[in-house]
Write a structure and sequence with these properties.
Distance between the termini: 98 Å
InterPro entries: IQ_motif_EF-hand-BS (IPR000048), IQCK (IPR043408)
Protein name: IQCK protein
Organism: Erithacus rubecula (European robin)
Number of helices: 8
Number of strands: 0
Number of domains: 2
Structural class: mainly alpha
Oligomer: single chain
């Protein structure tokens, strides 16, 4: 039993195809020869002739775009790879070669999908550059520091008291009711 355990396993019996058969085609290149009938060919032939020549260049473009968007530098990014690939594949479809470029949210099946399944908005932290975010943080901090000033506090208290005494919110509501009636 111990001798049998130490013997190498004959891997050929577990895999029917050799490793040479799994080499992928060069990007954008269709295999030589006549394309097989898509309804009658094997899965491998279908992938080699119909899927890989379109998908592999799309994946290469996706990687270039991800690098351009600096996706490999941080944990979070606004770049959504599936959106890019969907848009790229739709626009590179040979059936649409004479048509103009279509943005992702203008693609008909994407519109239909998003009608039923709306997306949450992208967080502001992903949309702002570092410079824009720092300006926003600094402005909030300066505003907070100004509001902490005793003179400003006194002014804010006076405005609050004035609003309550003169019933400003009711006056504003009446004003807009009159405006809407006109």
């Amino acid at each position: 039993l111990e001798e049998a355990m130490l013997q190498p396993l004959p891997m050929e019996q577990y895999f029917s195809a050799s490793a040479d058969q799994y080499v992928l085609p060069i990007l954008g290149e269709t295999p030589s020869g006549e394309p097989p009938d898509p309804k009658k060919c094997s899965t491998r032939e279908y992938l080699e002739f119909y899927i890989f020549p379109v998908l592999l260049p799309g994946l290469a473009a996706l990687l270039h775009e991800a690098e351009k968007e600096k996706c490999f530098e941080g944990k979070r990014t606004k770049f959504i790879p599936s959106d890019f690939l969907t848009e790229w594949l739709y626009n590179k479809n040979p059936k649409r070669k004479d048509e103009s470029f279509t943005e992702l949210f203008s693609i008909p099946f994407v519109k239909d999908w998003l009608k039923d399944r709306p997306r949450p908005p992208i967080p502001l932290s992903l949309l702002l550059s570092e410079e824009e975010a720092s300006i926003l943080i600094q402005s909030f901090w300066r505003g907070y520091r100004v509001r902490c000033d005793s003179e400003i506090q006194e002014l804010r208290q006076w405005q609050k008291k004035l609003r309550e005494e003169r019933h400003i919110t009711e006056v504003v509501k009446k004003f807009w009711t009159k405006q809407e009636a006109k």
